[in-house]
Amino acid sequence: MMNVAVPNTPEEVLRRWMTSSDQLSVSADGSLMIEGISAAELIKRFGSPLYVMSEGTLRKNFRRIKAAFEANWPAAINVMYAIKANPNPSIRAILHEEGAGGDCFSLGEIQATFLGGADPNKIVVNGSYKPDEVIARAIDLGLTINLDSEEEVDSVEAVARRLGKTVRVGIRIKVLPEDYFKDFSSDCFKRPNFFQGMRRSKWGETAETAKRIIRRLTGHEHLKLFGYHTHIGRASRDPNMFGAIGAELAQIVLNLYQETNFAPSMIDLGGGWARERDPESSGDVRNPHPIEDYAAAVCAPMLRIFRDGQMPLPEIWLEPGRYLVGNAGVFLTTVGLIKRDTELGFTWVNVDSSTNNLLQIDLFGYTYVALSAEGMHRPLRQKVDLVGMTCVPSVFVRDCAMPELKVGEVIAVLDAGMYGEAKGYQFNSLPRPATALVSGKFSWLIRRRETVDDVFSTMVLPERFKQDEPRVS
Ligand SMILES: Cc1ncc(COP(=O)(O)O)c(C=O)c1O
Fold this sequence. Notes:
Layout: H1 10-17, E1 24-26, E2 32-34, E3 37-38, H2 39-46, E4 50-54, H3 55-70, E5 77-82, H4 89-98, E6 101-104, H5 107-116, E7 123-125, H6 132-141, E8 144-147, H7 151-163, E9 167-172, H8 178-181, H9 194-200, H10 207-217, E10 223-229, H11 239-260, E11 266-268, H12 291-308, E12 315-318, H13 322-325, E13 329-341, E14 346-351, H14 360-364, E15 370-372, E16 382-387, E17 395-402, E18 410-414, E19 434-439, E20 442-447, H15 452-455
Parallel strand pairs: 4-19, 5-6, 5-12, 6-7, 7-8, 8-9, 9-10, 10-11, 11-12, 14-16
Antiparallel strand pairs: 1-2, 2-3, 4-13, 13-14, 13-18, 15-18, 16-17, 19-20
Helix pairs in contact: 3-4, 3-12, 4-5, 6-7, 10-11, 11-12
Pyridoxal-5'-phosphate binds next to helix 13.
């Protein structure tokens, strides 16, 4: 086993966990730099707490995943940003400049996608139930709809007929290779029987149902069969899982080709691509597998099976969310109060935010890396629990190695770009933080901080409860 030296400073912690697309460094005076601006300066400009997105990291992540699949697949690759991971239109705009397609689930996600800019030919709409207004918007814009059920054919058909338009459709397939999954336990989702759980999940159709859908849609006036979709999610960082999924999906697709003559133009492999720094895993934060391993693992069996079966090669479409935005985001929060209990032997560093702002911690137990952003050169002297303000435990990081800290100093939590803003909520009526975008030495506000009034802006107090003054008794 490799002997990993125990880090002595936050800078060494950062070095240990740095990945190639991070735009993080440490200045001569020991400040954490995000691209060309220090974390403390960003807090001065935009206030605390603050999500910070690095444009450079976003662009690098996009180019890397695209190149990884292009190296393993001879037909075109469409990398579609799964906007659920972070719906900020500025992020969409940057990825659009890179040529990204998109995956949307709702009217809101379609709106965010097109606010930032999008090519309709590269956008899919997913979801187990898509209300008619979503279907209509997708058809109007010329997006591809991935059907999640046989029943959904009726709704899409009705809307397309009403609008007098055609729409490209994919079919979501339930891909669960039993040999791989029968004794499988996920390193991310804590489920007792993953295989049965996934069988029962609402997503996707079996090969038999797909065959019926294909027969029904062959030569259809309004629905143009275009391809297949599958998505397993961030279930494992084992490349063999992707290999098993690729093999099973390809076999299903080939069988359907042989039985129905339908040769798909695209296969959409969904998201869930594990990142190199991987707090999602209950194992080591360092994932030994770069994206190139996953691309190779999933593409090789598909290529072999399609070539052996003499099926024309489809394009590969992908829906990465976390992979693109995860490490592009850093969450900055400020120390508000340090509580020490010498009798119990614990120290709690209370910050001005909460795990509401990084909900994956509470939902899935992600083990994030936190750093003293103004003391990157200071020796690590203590183990603290980094805790938030809400009346749930709100433990960002337990037993976090920290240097001496002072009230008012900035703490940085890495990998905050995914599902932080998107799932953040206002428990304890805490307004949500602002978001800044950084590129080199430049920064922009891309989401304003909420006020307390914002928290209550959608609540309606009937006239009969209204008071001129706050009610005191
Ligand atoms: C259909 C679909 N595609 C893509 C994604 C994005 O997944 P990830 O962020 O793990 O890449 C999700 C996430 O839930 C999803 O449901």
